[in-house]
TrEMBL record:
Signal peptide: 1-18
TM ranges: 28-50, 125-145
UniProtKB keywords: Membrane, Signal, Transmembrane, Transmembrane helix
Organism: Lipotes vexillifer
Subcellular location, record wording: Membrane
Major location (coarse): membrane
Protein topology in the membrane: Multi-pass membrane protein
Protein's UniProt name: Tetraspanin-31 isoform X2
Annotated GO CC locations: membrane
């Protein structure tokens, strides 16, 4: 929410600067939009660069610190049991599973597989959307720079500054 409000304020500043031909406001709009581009481009590239082994490490680390209540909720919502079935701890998780799939069939799909599929898909979508919007920000910087260097049509042409 805070990021959205920040971006909305930046957009309003650019709009006010463009309507009033305010060069200083447009200059700071360009600088801030350029910094937002760098940040968003870096995050988008990192979303696209995370491979399955790193995602597996993150899922394993978060599963180990997760409370039992949260695990139960995840297992019920994803309809799966356990994480990756690699250790005896994961086999205990499978034994205490309350997901619906356990009553339908003797073996449920492991949650780790579903988490990996879901996270990989989400990271690709987020990375692609982030790259698209980061390059539209560069377009905004370029347009602001072009508009900033134009003369104000309301200005007196015989005035020096």
């Amino acid at each position: 929410m805070a990021v959205g409000v920040f971006l909305l304020l930046i957009a309003v500043a650019g709009l006010v600067g463009a309507v009033n031909h305010h060069q200083v406001l447009l200059f700071f709009y360009m600088i801030i939009l350029g910094l937002v581009f760098i940040f968003q481009f870096g995050i988008s590239c990192s979303c696209l660069a995370i491979n399955l082994s790193k995602q597996t490490d993150v899922i394993n680390a978060s599963w180990s610190v997760m409370s039992n209540k949260t695990r139960d909720e995840l297992e019920r919502s994803f309809d799966c049991c356990g994480l990756f079935n690699l250790t005896t701890l994961d086999q205990q998780d499978y034994a205490f599973c309350t997901a619906i799939c356990k009553s339908r069939s003797p073996t449920c799909q492991m949650c780790g597989e579903k988490f990996l599929k879901h996270s990989d898909e989400a990271l690709k979508i987020l990375g692609g959307v982030g790259l698209f919007f980061s390059f539209t920000e560069i377009l905004g910087v370029w347009l602001a720079m072009r508009f900033r260097n134009q003369k104000d049509p309301r200005a007196n042409p015989s005035a020096f500054l």
